[in-house]
Specification:
Blueprint lengths: L3 E3 L3 H12 L4 E3 L6 E5 L3 H11 L8 E3 L6 H4 L5 H10 L4 E6 L14 E5 L4 H10 L3 E3 L13 H8 L5 E3 L11 E4 L6 E4 L5 H8 L4 E2 L27 E6 L2 H17 L4 E4 L6 H17 L4 E5 L6 H12 L4 E3 L1
Parallel strand pairs: 1-8, 2-8, 4-6, 5-9, 10-11, 12-14, 12-15, 13-14
Antiparallel strand pairs: 2-3, 3-7, 4-7, 5-6, 9-10
The protein binds adenosine monophosphate and magnesium ion.
The site of magnesium ion has 3 residues, from loops.
């Protein structure tokens, strides 16, 4: 199919919204990563998103709204905790999993009776949702398994010719996907870390949210050579190795490894961020992986960051990108 390209003028967004209303697919910028949007209440449209991405159909999508009031159409149970987090963090990079109202098609929720909802702060995203007059289901606008797209160029590289339109906005400011918090249990639980940390959620709620301490740890049943590479997401084409330990030792080990591999004729890239700049790492990480692929890099050596605050979310993506290929020094 011929993909149409839009800018971010009001008229462009209006035309893109018409495509959403007609059941088409539109990629659009958000503050986290680019999303691939479809009318969340139209099962046929949502089905096309899975096909375009090559995404397994049991992997649910996030439903995006442009007004806090819209949450009451998607769920009938807005608890005090949900209200507190909505007031503290919406619009913004926080997704809440809530019980789904019957109007939400099961194809949108991956067959679950809960739905993940977010109100993005990006003005283009908000305008598209408002103009479409429907909530927009959107996973990240990449081919399944590839690093998430943080610029319009990344979306074009993956999805040109596979979707109806792409809104070409600027680069994403956050750079990693939203924090996902499950609000359906007795205690809210973080399912996916993001720049809104568990500590900030706990503070806003006045109680401690749950977060699996083993979230960033390779699980026992992980077999790196298993056919599906079950735990490999966000993967660059290059082999990726994470170096963990004392910063100076890490730098030395990476430099030596680079020298050794360059000697074999391999193209090697080093990724290293300071522990004091996890937000910068979040903003740039996926773009770096894609740049390495474009440059034909064979192996990426990445220094682990300290896993607290936003660093925990960055390391969550880094471990998955590398398929938990870790060297301790
Ligand atoms: P993506 O759209 O690619 O950012 O992925 C959406 C993320 O939200 C995935 O990790 C999903 O597993 C998660 N998610 C979406 N809906 C639900 C739900 N109802 N329950 C639990 N997790 C969800
Ligand atoms: Mg994704």
């Amino acid at each position: 199919m011929e993909t149409r390209f839009f800018g971010t003028t009001e008229e462009d967004i209006q035309q893109a919204a018409e495509i959403i209303k007609e059941g088409g697919l539109v990629a659009f910028p958000t503050e986290t990563v680019y999303g691939l949007g479809a009318d969340a209440l139209n099962p046929e449209a949502v089905g096309k998103v899975y096909a375009a991405k090559g995404r397994p159909s049991d992997n649910p999508m996030i439903v995006h709204i442009s007004s806090k009031n819209d949450l009451s159409h998607l769920t009938f149970e807005i608890t005090d905790d949900i209200r507190k987090l909505m007031d503290a963090f919406w619009p913004g990079p926080l997704t809440m999993v809530v019980p789904a109202a019957p109007v939400v098609p099961r194809v949108t929720t991956g067959g679950l009776d809960t739905v993940a909802v977010r109100m993005p702060s990006d003005p283009v995203a908000a305008a598209l949702i408002t103009s479409s007059e429907t909530p927009i289901a959107a996973p990240s606008a990449n081919l399944s398994g590839r690093p998430s797209p943080t610029s319009a160029r990344h979306v074009i590289d993956d999805l040109d010719g596979r979707i109806d339109a792409i809104i070409q906005g600027g680069d994403c400011q956050v750079g990693i996907e939203s924090t996902v918090v499950d609000m359906t249990g007795a205690v809210p639980a973080v399912l996916r870390p993001g720049i809104i940390t568990a500590e900030r959620l706990s503070q806003a709620l006045g109680k401690t949210v749950e977060i699996d301490p083993a979230m960033n740890v390779k699980t026992a049943d992980f077999k790196p050579k298993s056919p599906g590479m079950k735990y490999k997401h966000y993967a660059p084409k290059a082999e990726m190795i994470i170096y963990k330990g004392d910063r100076e030792k890490v730098y030395l080990a990476m430099s030596e490894e680079k020298l050794r591999r360059t000697g074999y004729g391999q193209k090697v890239e080093i990724i290293m961020y300071d522990d004091s700049e996890p937000e910068k790492a979040a903003r740039e990480f996926f773009a770096k992986l894609r740049a390495c692929d474009k440059a034909g890099v064979d192996v990426i050596l990445a220094a682990a960051m300290r896993e607290d605050g936003v660093g925990f979310a960055v390391m969550n993506r880094m471990f998955k990108s590398a398929g938990y290929n870790i060297v301790e020094v």
